[in-house]
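Protein modeling request. Please complete all fields; requests missing the sequence field cannot be processed.
Requester role: graduate student
Desired output: 3D structure, token encoding
Chains: 1
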Amino acid sequence: MPCDDVTEVLHLLLDPEDRVQGYSLIKRTCGRAVGERSLIHAWAAGRSAVDILGADLDAFLDAHAPADGSDTAEAEELLALKHLFALQAGLAVLAGDASGAAGETCAIESMVYGPEGCEFVGQVRVDVLTDKIKACGRCGVGCGRRKAAAG
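Delivered output (151 residues):
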């Protein structure tokens, strides 16, 4: 039976200079990975929070372009965007640009600061991420940016 709770959990590690050291994105109810646990780790690792928050969407997707002719290209793009937007939502909370309150895109579950950096755990609302992905236009459902780029 499918689960009604589609909340995901973002676990994020930053060093003392606010650079991403690692992250994972899993389903809250079953602990299964969203695509892969750390799908965009190679891209995010070592980047500053500011760089990730201001990431150029087209450059990001170009870096995560699936193999030509892939039957799963749209799903792969969707998952990469989901991971990026989840990271951005968590980093926005840490930067003070979002409250992190219950009901927000990313609600704080725990946050620990120390000499090694910060460990952040937040609950991410998937419905908000899905709306953001549609609005970017890369899926062909939103503003049509992908269609315009192809033409």
